[in-house]
UniProtKB/TrEMBL annotation:
SUPFAM superfamilies: TPR-like (SSF48452). Seems to be required for the assembly of the photosystem I complex. It is found in: Membrane; Plastid, Chloroplast thylakoid membrane. GO terms for biological process: photosynthesis. NCBIfam families: PRK02603.1 (NF002725). The keyword Repeat applies. Transmembrane segments: none annotated. It is a peripheral membrane protein. The gene is ycf3. PANTHER family: CELLULOSE SYNTHASE OPERON PROTEIN C (PTHR44943), TPR-REPEAT-CONTAINING PROTEIN (PTHR44943:SF9). GO terms for cellular component: chloroplast thylakoid membrane. SMART domains: TPR. This is Photosystem I assembly protein Ycf3.
Length: 173
């Protein structure tokens, strides 16, 4: 049974119904419709913590989806799963792949910064100041890019940049 038929949550059911209507109305190819169905099922599985199932659906969606913009969000969601499982190297790989297709995906920029910041804290806690500085500097670069694209977002990152002397540069990215 497709995941879209076993949603118990009202909002998930509503989204599924609306998505099915949009799929029927829009002039899209069979592959695009299948890709969206897999993507939708992946999001549903991910929201329920069923990460293995979500990954299966996202990989199927990637095989079918041709639009770079849509592929960027699939790659981003794969990165989210790896990050939530503590697989930061894989998460970074997928976030970077997403950014190659959609350089304005501020969520990916933010999540890359969060991973580097976390690595900086870990290095700091194990008395590796040079690694910590390097990781914090990398985090700053990605947060600066995200904030440049979305200046009203990432307030905590903006505060961190100010308090650590890593102010946002006025040049564009």
């Amino acid at each position: 049974m497709p995941r879209s038929q076993k949603n118990d949550n009202f909002i998930d059911k509503t989204f599924t119904v609306l998505a099915d209507i949009v799929l029927k109305v829009l002039p899209t190819s069979k592959e695009e419709k299948e890709a969206f169905a897999y993507y939708r099922d992946g999001m549903s599985a991910q929201s329920e913590g069923e990460y293995a199932e979500a990954l299966e659906n996202y990989y199927e969606a990637l095989n079918l989806e041709e639009d770079p913009y849509d592929r960027s969000y699939i790659l981003y969601n794969i990165g989210l799963i790896y990050a939530s499982n503590g697989e930061h190297v894989k998460a970074l790989e997928y976030y970077h792949k997403a950014l190659e297709l959609n350089a304005r995906l501020t969520q990916a920029l933010n999540n890359i910064a969060v991973i580097y910041h976390y690595q900086g804290i870990k290095a700091s806690n194990t008395n590796n100041p040079s690694i910590a500085k390097s990781m914090f500097d990398k985090a700053a670069i990605y947060w600066q890019q995200a904030i440049y694209l979305a200046p009203n977002n990432y307030i905590e990152a903006q505060n961190w940049l100010k308090t650590t002397g890593r102010e946002i540069q006025s040049e564009g990215y």
